[in-house]
Input
Amino acid sequence: MAIQEDATCGSPGLPRRFAPRNDEEIKSALETIPALVARRYAGRWVRGFVGGKLRRDPLAAMLLRLAEAEGFGHALDLGCGRGHWGLFLLAAGAAGRVTGIDRNAAHLAQASDAAAAPPALAFAGQRRDLAAEPALPEADTVLLLDVLYQLAPDAQARLLDAAMRAARRRIVIRTADPAQGLRSALTAAYERVALVVSPHSGDRVAPPDPAHLAARLRRAGFATAALPCWRGTPFANLVLDARRA
Output
């Protein structure tokens, strides 16, 4: 299902198209690509984590569907961690190149080493604390996947402002929806445990109001859709797909 880059596209690295024809092609991709990405990583535990995440997280299928009409082009993956989502998009042909930004040097090194394994994928990592340094380079698509709710509200606002300035075409946000009752409570409890056993992007769990995020995106000129992203899980994750109108 991987596609080739089209030199005639307006933005550098913009894939020609990612267009699975049906649910079976999505299913086929999810049966093969996670393993291909996971084997790029060194260490049994990390390979297991990456492979399991990409196989089981409903975000994987959603990202492939969001790339159907057009690929993500040059994607800026904020709080990328080990880079598994960026490498997944590259391996699927849903992005032309990915710049990952994270404050964890060890995770960035794992991402870069995995991307460099043959055949090499177009991933570049930058170490930075997004809460302290929110300025961003331009990209076709800005990915904020499980990042905003780990920041303080003022840092959330600054990073969203920077993302809106940086995104030439699109912003994709996954966050926790605090208005889904028991699902929301389970999500918050899980994230608080995760902060203790495996600290990653931030030091708190503070889900923003998705309606407030969507309103800010629309005021900035992005047509925004809210998409539940919890299929097959007990959680309350939500994706905002925001495209420049």
Summary: The helical segments are 23-38, 44-56, 59-66, 84-92, 105-116, 153-166, 182-197, 210-219.
